[in-house]
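Posting for a labmate who doesn't have an account.
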Amino acid sequence: MTEVASSAPTELPAVEDQNTYNGPRHDGEYDRLRTQHDMIKVAMGGKLVLAPIDFARPDLRILDSATADGYWLVDLASSVAETATLIGTDLDPQRFITDLPKNISLSTHSIFDTWPAPFQSSFDLVHQRFVLPICSDEASIDAVKKIFACVKQGGYIQLHDGDMEEIAQGPQHEAMMRFRDMMQKAWTMLGYNLSPGPKLAGWLKDAGAVDIEQTVLVNKCGPAAEDKVQGERGTFVMLALLDGIEVLAGNIPGFFFSPEDFKILRADLAEELATVGNYWRTHVVWARKPL
C-alpha cells in the first residue's frame, strides 16, 4: 500500500500504488508550483483566501482539492486555530509533505470521483486551484458540481484557474505568442480547456452557488512587472510550465512539437521574458452555498 502523509486521522482510504497520475512528477514541476504559490499570494495581497471565512473558529473545516504536495494548506495552517481541521487531497501522493502540522491530513482522491459521504456538506471552505486545464469543459463542470457538494450550507468555495488566451502580443512578444499557440493546439488535441478561469463563475452558478464574486489577477513576467521579485517568479513559472509540457509531450506519440522545437522556443522565450516581459491572467472566484 502507498503510505499517505498525515499527522492527523484521515477520512479517505489509502490507495494501491499505481501509476494513475499523468501530470509531471519531476522536481521542476513542484518547484514551479511553490514559486507560483508565492507569486499568487503576493498578487492576492498576502492572502490565500478571499472568501469571507472566520479563521478564528475552533471547529473550522477546510478542504483543499488537488493539493499537490500540501504546500497551500501548510501555509494556511498558521492562520487558523490549532483545533481546525485541514484536509488536502490529490491523485498523486508521492510528493506529499511528510512533516505536517497536527491539524493537517493528506490523502488520495481524484477530482473526477464522487466524494465520500463524510465529505458531503461537511466543509466551511472548499478550495481548488490550477487543475481544471487538464479537463474538458464537460469534465470540469462535473468536477465542480462534485466538489461543491462538499461545501456545507452557508459555507464557501473558492476556485482559482488561469486564462492563457489573453497575453501581450505584437512583434516584441513573438516567443510568448508561439508558446501560447503551441499550448492551444496541444490542449485542443488532448480535448482539454487551456483557459478555464473565465468560466468558473458560470460553472459555480450552474452548480447552485450564490453570492458569486470574482477578482482577476494579472501575473506579470520579467520587466513587465512593477516588482522585480514578482517578475522573476512569473518568468520562472512560465519557463517551468514549458519544461513540464515538454515532459508530457514525450509521452504522446507523434506530438507535433519536436525536442528541437522545444529547445528553440525555450531559448527564445527566456530571452524575451528577461528583456521585454509579458503577462497572463488568473481568475479567483468565490461563492456561497445557500442555507
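Reply:
Got it, the C-alpha cells are right above this. The radius of gyration is 19 Å.
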